[in-house]
Amino acid sequence: MTNATKHAHASAATVAVDTVDDVLRISVRDDGVGGADFTRGTGLVGLKDRVEALGGRMSLDSPSGAGTTLRAEIPLTGAGLSRQLI
To answer: Do 31 and 4 touch, CB atoms closer than 8 A?
Structure first.
C-alpha cells in the first residue's frame, strides 16, 4: 500500500486476502502509473525475499500506464504460520 501511494500515485487500491488449500493468497491492485519492477529499488525485492523465506512466491504485473497488481502466496503449513494469525 505504501508503494501504491508513494510511487504509483494511485487514486485507488484494493486488497484481497483468502486461503485455499492451506495457502494464504494476497493480492494488491492499484490504478497508478504502473511500471513497477523487482529490479528497480529494494522495497519490492525485500518484500519478495520475505515471502520466499516463508516458502511462498510473489508475482508482479505492472504495465506502464495501467496500474500494478502484486500477488503473494504463502503456505500456512511448514512455514511456522498458524491459521489463528489470519
So the answer is: no
Mean pLDDT in order along the chain per 10 residues (86 residues): 76 94 95 87 86 95 92 83 50
Alpha-carbon distance of 11 to 73, in angstroms, equals 25
Sort 42 into a burial class: Cβ within 10 Å, 0-12 / 13-18 / 19+: exposed
- Alpha-helix residue ranges (DSSP H) falling in 1-86: 2-6, 43-53
The pLDDT value given to residue 84: 46
- The single-letter DSSP state of residue 86 is -
Give yes or no for a contact between 84 and 64, defined as CB atoms under 8 angstroms apart. Answer: no
